[in-house]
Amino acid sequence: MTTIRQRRVGKGTDAAEHQPSEETNVKPDRKIPPDPPGRKLWNILSITFGGIVAISFGLLTSVYVATLHENDLWFSNIKEVEREISFRTECGLYYSYYKQMIQAASIQQGLHGLVYDNKTESVRTINILERMNVYQEVFLSILYRILPIQQYLEPVYFYIYTLFGLQAVYVIALYVTSWLLSGTWLSGLLTACWYITNRVDTTRVEFTIPLRENWALPFFAVQIAAITYLLRSHLQPAQERLALMAVFIATFLFSLTWQFNQFMMLIQALALFILDCLDMIPTAKVTWLYIIQISGLLLVCVLQFFNSMILGSLLISFNVSVLIARTIQKNLKKGGLLNRLGKLILHALLVLCLTLLINKFIKKILNLESDEHIFKFLKAKFGFGATRDFDANLYLCEEAFGLLPLNTFSRLSSTLLFYVYGFVLFLLTVAAVIVAFRNLSGSNQVQLKEKKEEYTVTLKPDAAYSLVHTVLFGCLALSTMRMKYLWTSHMCVFASFGLCSPEVWKLILKCLHLYTSQRTQVIKYSIPIITLLYISFKFWPGIMDELSELREFYDPDTVELMNWIKSNTPSTAVFAGSMQLLAGVKLCTGRTLTNHPHYEDKNLRERTKQIYQIYAKRSPGDVYGILRSFGTDYVILEDSICYERRHSRGCRLRDLLDVANGHIMDGLGENEPDLKPSLYPRFCEEIKKNLPSYTMHFTRVFQNKTFHVYKLAKHK
């Protein structure tokens, strides 16, 4: 098992960006008076300085996570095989394709090897570019080959520095989003500080570098920034076209780099749908965003050789359904409160029915089953019946797919982030309810403002989108811990926007009957500055201590295994074992695998379940027959799985296999009444006794404290 051990000694307060006052939720636009020359110069200086601060903090974050990665592993000093082993599970699989493209005789040969790959899944040729989102590895490998940097920079450093560089893009995008929402770059500065001080909950890039989300989330943040700009009022046609282009490019890159893009954008589409129904954002802009999502996803589908999982996505079905339903129901935004509520309920039901029908129809035509494990997992997770499905239980038993731990909130509260976020969320939710009620009831907002201006509650379209976005992604994070990074980063944006927004403080002061414009200006700068000072004084020493702590990578058992495989097995040998380990085997040795961690394929899931019978209660003949059917030459058994203690009873891999096979689980505890004892002992334990029934099929050729490798006999 990998451990990290201690390394041995040796070897000015800003001015707000000008933002014209907007009567939000009021449909008629009005002309904006021109700025005086002095004000325009001040705005240019403010934007310039704010931009410099944004770039500086982006680069600072990039250097920060790169330094943490180096200090944690001593990456510059360890051997190549150790560097590759540090890319755990699916990270190693993705990086292996970058390595494969670098080592290919030519770019054309490298691409051919990916399109006609027969080493990732034995006795099968698959198209890696269709199955997996690895275009970023392809692009990066081509870039490395054509740039004159081979003598100065190793391929692995070019790869990880690119990912760390994307963190700079990520932070800058968050900074800009907060700046656009609040009108001051001070809000962006606070966002960046919160992102860094809450690093444990905002990113995991320093130890899961090649993970797809680390490629995708920076582009998602850019997309959100572009949408925030698009939803501002009084945009010129050229500005609107530029914003739409930015949204499209960011959406396309986000979709291209992560297989779960469709589910994230489905939540985003749902947010737009809610806001459009409540008349809180312009319908024309929402329509463009629906079209951009569909077109971006279809373009990725073409690049991925018409990947059926994309065509059968709920996102495409939902967006098409909304556009059809809107055409059928043309008078949604007319009438009184009850009339409109009735129309909206019918509209939502129509969209839901159309979505399910279109999705079912597409999946029936394409015979699509690639994503069924996700829906089985969701069904079991939210209590719609227990399941014995192996794939669903495999997800349910992983901590990353469980509920968000409560200690997350204590960490976020220590930086004041969660307290501020909760306060702003409550305030804007109340404002959103008031605005939505007013919109649905058909109140004449212009007259209302004329009669009672000081008590009118408004919510800008960009702020309304940010509110619904953070609520929906918050629900996702609370239900699935792995998705918290989509929420916590936007939490930094949302909280800092609320703390620096003149509209928020204006609303608070008016409720307290304390409002003056001067008081609002003082508070909107002083509170964020005090918060920044608090964060700096409290967390700067801890960050410095963290950066000074030196460790090194240490996993001698896995290193020994990989070196043995490279030295003692033929290059055409086929290996079976756990998904996580085999990804490292492919990366470090280039040997052929029976299975791997990229789980979005039904045949692979069935194959993995069969391979995992090495940890079940099966006869040696059965296991041998299964392994040989996949062309296996060697099988690797891991004590950490065979004698697992990490999970409780019922969630250990061997327990999941026992239940799926209809066998009673090991150890004390209850079993379902229809489970029966197995006729055979557990394979991974019994094979070590070298009984004749096992040695006739399997010969042990390698072992250490963690791994046991057996060579399969080749019977006629």
Keywords:
single chain; 716 residues; mainly alpha; Rossmann fold; 3 domains; two-stranded antiparallel ribbon; 33 helices; 63% helix; globular; Dpy-19/Dpy-19-like; glycosyltransferase
Radius of gyration: 28 Å
The dominant shape is globular
- How many domains comprise the coordinates? 3
Residue fraction in strands:
under 5%
Strands of the largest sheet, in order across it?
A: 4-3-5-7-6
Distance between the ends: 38 Å
Mean model confidence by pLDDT: 89
Q: What does it look like?
A:
With 716 residues, this protein is mainly α. The chain folds into three domains: 87-152, no CATH class; 162-443 and 457-543, no CATH class; 556-712, Rossmann fold (3-Layer(aba) Sandwich), CATH 3.40.50. Helices cover 63% and strands 4% of the residues. It contains 33 helices and seven strands. It has helices at residues 37-73, 80-85, 89-103, 107-115, 128-131, 135-146, 155-182, 185-197, 199-202, 212-230, 237-257, 261-277, 283-303, 308-311, 314-328, 337-366, 372-381, 390-396, 407-414, 417-441, 445-451, 461-479, 484-500, 502-511, 517-548, 556-568, 579-589, 602-611, 620-629, 639-642, 653-660, 683-686, 692-695; strands spanning 3-6, 551-554, 574-576, 592-593, 634-638, 698-703, 707-712. Strands 4-3-5-7-6 form a five-stranded mixed beta sheet. Helix 7 (155-182) packs parallel to helix 23, helix 11 runs parallel beside helix 13 (283-303) and helix 12 (261-277) runs parallel beside helix 15. It is globular and about 90 Å long. Residues 9-31 and 444-455 have low confidence and may be disordered.
